[in-house]
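ugh ok fine here u go
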Amino acid sequence: MAARQRYRFRAPSTGREVIIEAQPGHTYRDRETGETLEPVGKLVPLAPSASDLPWAVENLRHCPHCGQMAQKDLNDCPTCGRRLDPIGVVVGG
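structure:
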């Protein structure tokens, strides 16, 4: 079980990204440049979670247009590119 939250960090000068199980109050540095990494976002599922996968079934939904799976936090379907309905809204129900 993942107890700590995983974050995506980015090096400002190079744009290089890394995923780290970050701890509050710590400063993380890029291996190559030595510059301080900036947190860009949290990875889902949020900690604590039984899953250690970046995207787990409980964090996905079906696109109403093409039927393919898409992450819950996306606004547009990565498969067909059409706009996804807001989470929790049932269309045509």
